[in-house]
Amino acid sequence: MCRWFAALAVLGAASLCSAQTVSMSGRLGDKALLMIDGSPRTVAVGTTVQGVKLVSISADGAMVELGGKRHTVPMGGTPVSLGAGGGGSDGGTRVVLTAGSGGHFMTTGAINGKAVEFMVDTGATTVALSAADAERIGLKYKDGQRGMASTAGGMVPVYRVNLTSVRVGEVTVYGVDATVVQAQMPFVLLGNSFLGRFQMTRVNDMLTLEKRP
């Protein structure tokens, strides 16, 4: 698998941290099983715990509110940072990623508003995703520039496209170059077309991304 990623020049992984973090591990009726700043809580819809209000829950996750701003917390996903960089859909400026098992940085996020799972690659030229993921999120990748790339499995077709938006945590970047690969990929790979918009600092197992002005 490492050979495959290197051949495409793309890699990485993460869980999010910030002033306050929330993740969701399950639900019990109208209650969500939340982890708030590392503390397990059972929270009913409409209830506020540690300043975090549970607005609604679904099979896919929960909507929570902090300081008048709402955030989506995916079921079983990495912790979502609340209140970092001003919150809001576009106002975030900082994401902190911590290495998971295997030393990789992985996180859930969104491309053009559709949920995906990312793996960070500081050596990648662009964001890279499989044709299957591109089709799932409704990306018309075949309108892009076609080319070929060498992988461990041989030469495969690729398409160069431009993504309307890429979101990680509370940070959204617009107009991001990407490569769609017609081969199986377990994750969407975050390359330098996204990472290059940030000042990156790594200390041990923690990677901090500060959005450039």
From TrEMBL:
| Leader sequence residues | 1-19
**What is the name of this protein?**
TIGR02281 family clan AA aspartic protease
The record's section on InterPro entries has:
Aspartic_peptidase_AS (IPR001969), Clan_AA_Asp_peptidase_C (IPR011969), Peptidase_A2_cat (IPR001995), Peptidase_aspartic_dom_sf (IPR021109), Retropepsin-like_bacterial (IPR034122)
The source's superkingdom equals Bacteria
In this record, what's one Pfam family?
Answer: gag-asp_proteas
A GO molecular-function descriptor? peptidase activity
**Ranges where the Peptidase A2 domain occurs:** 116-194
Kindly give the CDD domains that the UniProt entry links to this protein. Answer: retropepsin_like_bacteria
E.C. number: 3.4.23.-
